[in-house]
Amino acid sequence: MSNELIRVEVAYAKSDIQVILPVDLPAGGTARQAVEMSGILGRFPEIDLDKTRMGVFGKAVKPDQVLREKDRVELYRPLIADPKEVRRQRAEAGKAMKKGGGEL
Description:
The protein is an alpha+beta fold. It has three helices and five strands, in the order ββααβββα. The chain has helices at 31-38, 40-43, 83-98, and strands spanning 5-13, 18-26, 53-56, 59-61, 72-76. The longest helix has 16 residues, at 83-98. The radius of gyration is 20 Å and the shape is elongated.
């Protein structure tokens, strides 16, 4: 087994703060290992690694994804609203406005 280390980042964002933490991870390390080694779980106890989705540069990955040098593991919070539902509501509101539904 090699003693080689790779440098990766772990990123997490809330509405009021964004954190990107550098991690020196043994070569062959996984996304989950990077998150655990970063210390981010201590800073944000609401993160549940069994439920939190993660990705590398915006592409969803599983926790056992092997990382490469300079990868950034991103932890994703649950969506507040379903984007499809929001678009549907906007479309409905637009139809109402075209029918003269906007009163002055």
